[in-house]
Amino acid sequence: MTFNQQHAIITGGSSGIGKATAKLLAQKGANLTLIARDTAKLEQAKVEIEGMRRHPQAKIITISADVSQQIQVEAAIDQAIDQIGPADLLITSAGIAHPGYFQELPIEVFEQTMAVNYFGSLYAIKAVLPSMVEQQKGHIVLLSSGAGLIGIYGYTPYCPSKFALRGLAESLRGELKPQGIHVSIVYPPDTDTPQLEAENKTKPLETKMITGSAQMWSATAVANQIVRGIEKKQFGIMPGFEMRLLGRFHSLLAPVLNWYFDRIVAGNRE
User: Does 131 qualify as catalytic in the annotation?
Assistant: First the structure.
């Protein structure tokens, strides 16, 4: 896939991996729609990206919407298509995480995490798909996580939402392929983003010890892997050796990883 004059819609495009990916696509000549809740962050992202455009006339619009609200997502994508044209690429990078001990977390945290991470992606796909089907082409990219491949202590709201995205992507891949629409799912490692900073405020000590041994990536490095994977039409995009290993052999590695996690937890409690 080439991105020159293509219309890319990115949810969660005001920060983190979404914004980093938008910058790379702008450098490759894409027209962009950034969707997120915070209007101020959206405008700041737009200013940053405008300075990196390959073509000064390339369009960049921002739309404020809460992806957990179906009506808002549909209205935002309809507006994007009206202003720029049919979507060639959808990247669903909007997401939240609120780690903690299962018994201490209110049910609302589980509901909101699923609403944003899973249904936020689902609503966007539903809204953008008719234009892609009409064109008989398009590419949909869902952002999961390494936590969408194996359950992690302290992430009981987050892991199920990312596992659900994996199931959605795997199911959609075969269904949409005959219509010329490609599907990718990304499994980023821990990435230096505002979301991770927010997670660390509620993350249990055991979770910090488990995740602390993994390599930290920059949002730009992950975005590079995403863009490269889209260009190659890869289904599974797994940045780094650790994610590639986990992505390909997670079922085999799960017993070993669970043993390792249990040892960390037990050691901390001693």
Answer: no
Q: Is 144 a catalytic residue?
A: yes
How would residue 268 be classed by pLDDT, with cut points 50, 70 and 90?
low
DSSP codes of every residue in 65-117: --TT-HHHHHHHHHHHHHHH-S-SEEEE---------GGGS-HHHHHHHHIII
Instruction: Please count the other Cβ atoms lying within 10 Å of the Cβ belonging to residue 189.
Output: 21
Q: Which one of the listed residues 93, 144, 145, 161 is annotated catalytic?
A: 144
Q: Catalytic residue among 118, 158, 161, 187, which?
A: 158
| 59 annotated active-site | no
The CA-based angle 70-71-76, given to 5 degrees, is 100
pTM: 0.91
Q: Which burial class, exposed, middle or buried, applies to 17 when counting CB atoms under 10 A from its CB (0-12, 13-18, 19+)?
A: buried
Comparing 49 with 249, the larger pLDDT belongs to: 49
At residue 109, what is the residue type? V
If you ran DSSP here, which 8-state letter would residue 200 be given? Answer: T
Number of other residues whose CB lies within 10 A of the CB of residue 218: 13
Are the CB atoms for 124 and 90 separated by under 8 Å?
yes
Kindly name the residue from 19, 23, 162, 203 that is annotated as catalytic: 162
Tell me how far apart the alpha carbons of residues 73 and 112 are, in angstroms, rounded to a whole number: 16
Q: Which class for 3: exposed (0-12), middle (13-18), buried (19 or more C-beta within 10 A)?
A: buried
